[in-house]
């Protein structure tokens, strides 16, 4: 109403402005990739022991537990690990081994019969259950056999 009166008094066209606040920024996830051991020690024999010496960690740097059910971690060749029903406690980490084993609160198992991470370079990408990017870590061969993200 005030805009119309002002426009009539000045002979200008009435213009209305609508100010829309910006949406709040998404908070950074407290869940991060940690160490990735991409080259298991010794000769690559493809035994379960050797496969389980290839692993990555996921850590929760937050103050409350996080439901990782349905979260994924994939490599550049599209090998995908999907968390089943799993909660990661605040301040805790979980190690995901390439081979087979019995899942616990601190160790999970991919169940692969082949190595996943490339020794000459690769990239791990983590997404939450709705497919939203959470974190990634890339490396080229460092000779150490592992990287810390």
Report on this model:
The protein is mainly beta and 149 residues long. The protein has one domain: Immunoglobulin-like. It has helices at 2-10, 48-52, and strands spanning 31-37, 55-60, 66-67, 72-74, 80-82, 87-88, 93-97, 107-109, 121-127, 133-140, 146-148. A five-stranded mixed beta sheet has the order 8-7-2-1-11, with no helix packed on it. Strands 5-4-9-10 form a four-stranded antiparallel beta sheet, with no helix packed on it. β4 (72-74) and β5 form a beta hairpin. Mean pLDDT is 87; it is low at 1-8 and 14-25.
Question: What is the gist of this entry?
Answer:
With 149 residues, the protein is mostly beta strands.
CATH topology: Immunoglobulin-like
* Helix/strand order, N-terminal first: HEHEEEEEEEEEE
Percentage of helical residues?
under 10%
User: How many helices in DSSP terms?
Assistant: 2
CATH architecture, by name, is Sandwich
Give the N-to-C terminal Cα separation.
58 Å
Number of strands: 11
Radius of gyration: 24 Å
Which structural class best describes the helix and strand composition?
mainly beta
Total domain count? 1
Contiguous low-pLDDT stretches (5 residues minimum) are 1-8, 14-25
Give the strand line-up of the largest sheet: 8-7-2-1-11
Q: Under the CATH scheme, which class?
A: Mainly Beta
Strand content: 25-35%
Largest beta sheet, briefly? 5 strands, mixed
What is the H level of CATH, i.e. the homologous superfamily?
Answer: Lamin Tail domain
**What best-fitting shape do the alpha-carbon axes yield?**
globular
Give the rounded overall mean pLDDT. Answer: 87
């Amino acid at each position: 109403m005030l805009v119309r009166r002002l426009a009539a008094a000045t002979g200008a066209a009435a213009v209305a402005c609508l100010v829309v606040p910006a949406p709040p920024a998404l908070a950074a996830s407290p869940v991060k990739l940690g160490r990735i051991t991409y080259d298991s020690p010794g000769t690559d024999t493809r035994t379960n022991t050797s496969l389980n010496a290839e692993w990555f960690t996921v850590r929760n740097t937050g103050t409350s537990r996080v439901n990782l059910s349905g979260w994924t971690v994939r490599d550049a060749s599209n090998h995908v690990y999907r968390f089943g029903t799993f909660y990661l406690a605040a301040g805790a980490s979980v190690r995901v081994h390439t081979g087979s084993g019995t899942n616990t609160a601190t160790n999970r198992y991919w169940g692969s019969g082949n190595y996943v991470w490339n020794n000459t370079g690769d990239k791990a990408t983590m997404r939450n259950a709705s497919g939203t990017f959470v974190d990634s870590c890339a490396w080229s061969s460092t000779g150490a056999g592992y990287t810390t993200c």
